[in-house]
Specification:
With 247 residues, the chain is an alpha/beta fold. The chain is 33% helix and 20% strand. The chain has eight helices and eleven strands. It has a seven-stranded mixed β-sheet with strand order 3-4-2-1-5-6-7, with helices on both faces. The protein has a four-stranded parallel β-sheet with strand order 10-9-8-11.
């Protein structure tokens, strides 16, 4: 990370403290300047040695005073109006500042790392931040302790399925993809995530084309997955209409 980075966390609650601890584990806690919070009684207090500078209403002045370069909104239970209010104040102070937010879905989990889930804010997020309603218990019951195979694991959909499955106490992921580079990038991404987890599921990375029946039979015989997510597919329909044999 750039040594000039100075991060301000908006939200001095459980999520903010968890995020700070993750930065400590990665030995980059020095990039965290401190916190702001909606609760004005926290002003002047410290969380693991980092100060709570002020309230979120004063986030603009804090950004300028401490030369903040990135803001992380660690308030997964906050609604769209609350998040948009903070984002607007940040942009008013510095329109070029990098803003990240912990997705609202993360409020359902308290045992998985938060930093890999950080979502960079774009202007459209000011107008639409959907709320999630998830039956976590049912999902956990379905996938906990299971070995799960994902085809197309290096793609945008497959890689996100891999990341989401890590939240559900699974036993093993068999990540199958045709592209060497995409699977390499997936491995780097998931390894960063797993390094921060207490429960570390096994992940096997296999370079394979789902059209290679013999190789796929070998993979299934060797790893015997309980569940398969088949995400290997072409998704750009107008382009593939002119490449119908490959499609």
């Amino acid at each position: 990370m750039d040594s000039r980075i100075k991060i301000l966390i908006a939200g001095a609650g459980e999520a903010g403290e968890m995020l700070l601890n993750e930065y400590k584990k990665r030995d980059i806690v020095h990039f965290i300047a401190g916190f702001v919070d909606d609760d004005d009684t926290k002003k002047g207090s410290y969380i693991s040695g980092k100060p709570v500078f002020d309230t979120t209403d004063s986030i603009g002045s804090v950004i300028k005073q401490y030369s903040i370069t990135e803001v992380i909104i660690a308030m997964p239970s906050a609604g769209p109006l609350q998040i948009n209010r903070i984002i607007s104040k940040v942009i008013s102070a510095d329109s070029k500042i990098n803003i990240y937010v912990i997705p609202s879905v993360e409020k359902y989990f308290d045992t998985v790392p938060l930093s890999p889930s950080l979502h960079e804010i774009v202007l459209s997020d000011l107008f639409d931040r959907s709320e999630y309603s998830i039956d976590v218990r049912s999902i956990m019951k379905k996938y906990s302790g299971k070995s799960i195979l994902i085809t197309g694991a290096g793609g945008s959909i497959g890689s996100e399925i891999c990341r989401q499955l890590l939240k559900f106490d699974i036993k093993k992921i068999i990540a199958v993809g045709r592209g060497e580079n995409s699977i390499y990038q997936l491995a780097r991404s998931l390894n960063r995530y797993i390094d921060l987890m207490d429960h570390k599921p096994e992940i096997i990375y296999k370079i394979a084309d789902v059209k290679d029946h013999a190789l796929m039979d070998k993979i299934f015989s060797e790893y015997k997955p309980d569940v398969v997510f088949h995400a290997a597919a072409h998704k750009h329909v107008p382009l593939m209409e002119f490449n119908e044999i490959e499609a």
